[in-house]
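Researcher: I'd like a structural prediction for the single chain below. Treat it as a standalone chain; there are no partners to consider.
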Amino acid sequence: MARREPVYEVVQVLAKGILGAQGVRVDYRGLENIPAEGGVLLAVNHTSYVDFLEAGLAARRAGRWPRYMLKAELKKIRVMAFLIKHCGAIGVDREHGAESYHEAVTALEAGEAVIVYPEATISRSFELKEFKSGAARMSIEADVPIVPLIVWGTQRIWSKGTQRRAGRHRFPVVVQAGPAIRPDGDDPAALTARLRTAMGEALKSAQRGFPAPAGEDWVPARLGGGAPPPDEALRLEQEEFALRKAKREAKQAAKRRSDEA
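Model: Treating it as a single chain, here is the predicted structure.
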């Protein structure tokens, strides 16, 4: 499927414009690891609300028009529904993901690049969380490589638990692509483990020499920052999910009562 739709091209220009307006200085590394053609999964770490911009632009620099795997709930927002449709994004329903999974596999088999977030949600610790097995299973089924893609520094701009820093700031960001990983007969668990190890190595490479001011909310605790360590971040995430679930169930109960009245 051709990805050069007019809307997609406009979105790419807007993304560049946003980064330019903020003065974000992006250092792209290892993009030669992204194959110029053929199906490929780009596995991205998830540390902020805006890391998708740099991930997509990295793919474009490598000559690809990537398809994102995004939360299906975004389709409820009219503007996002329009962009998802015209940019070929794949909506992911976290409770019923079979349809989106098969759509992604079909795209990979057709030679497309698909961006996936193995952690599924933002890491509050800014360390790698446990990975879901979806990326590995898609790689195995479509027989395509996975390229680890680390975006580092965007959590300083806007993330969970950090101060939102809008406006022009000239913050540095590193995008590090690691060597492609082939399925090579692995089962999903083994390939997921290999992917996480590779992304861990790419993350450390991206962090090497990167500013890490002591106590700052966007710097991992491991590097002397003020972000919560992984165990605390997990607790905060579980509390957030529990609260969301309670609100959702209360809303559903209220609707049932209204329907019965």
